[in-house]
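fold-stage: in
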Amino acid sequence: MCTMTKSPVALAKEAIQAAQAGLDPYSSNFSRHDFTQQQLFAILVLRQFFKTDYRGIIQMLKDFAELRKTLKRKKIPHYSTLCYAEKRLLKKGLLKTY
C-alpha cells in the first residue's frame, strides 16, 4: 500500500532511510565529506516535493530549522552542490526527474 504525506519532515525522514539502504555515504574517498549522498538525495527529494529550483530549496532549508534538524545539518550546501549531486545520481539511475 502506498501512503502519501504532506509533511516535508516525514518525507525527509523517509528519503534519508531509503538513501541509506541504497547509497554509499560518499561518492568518493577523496571528497570533502561535507555532506553525505543520503543528505543530498533527501534535499533533492524535498526540492521535487516543493516544486522549486535549487536556490529555492536552499532558502527553505535556511528558513526551516526542523528540516535541517531532520537532515542532521547545520551547514547548508551551495545550490551548485545540489546540481552536481543530481547529475551524478541521475547518471547512476538512482534519481528520476518529473
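fold-stage: in (second)
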Amino acid sequence: MHVGTIIEAVDFPKARNPSYILKVDFGAEIGVKKSSAQITVLYTKEQLIGKKVMAVTNFPAKQIGPIMSECLVTGFHREDGAVVLATPDLNVPNGSRLA
C-alpha cells in the first residue's frame, strides 16, 4: 500500500452505486492512477482534492463500467454503510509505502 494525493474527483454516473472517479498522484515512481470510489455519502468532490489517501497500487487494472480502475483506495465502512477513507494523520510524501 502507498500514500497518494487525490488530484481530480469527478462524478461517475454510470456506476451502479453513487461513486466518484478519482485520479491519485503517487509520485514519480508510481505516477498518477485512476480509481472509482463509493465515497459520495461523506465526501464532496471539492473536499477530496488535495486529500492524502492509502491505496493498493499493485493489483492488476480492473474494468469498472466504462473505466479501468488502476488502484484500490482504502477505507472503513461505518454502521450506516458510509465509507471513511484511510488517510495518514501527518503529511508524508506521495508514494510512501505502508510500513
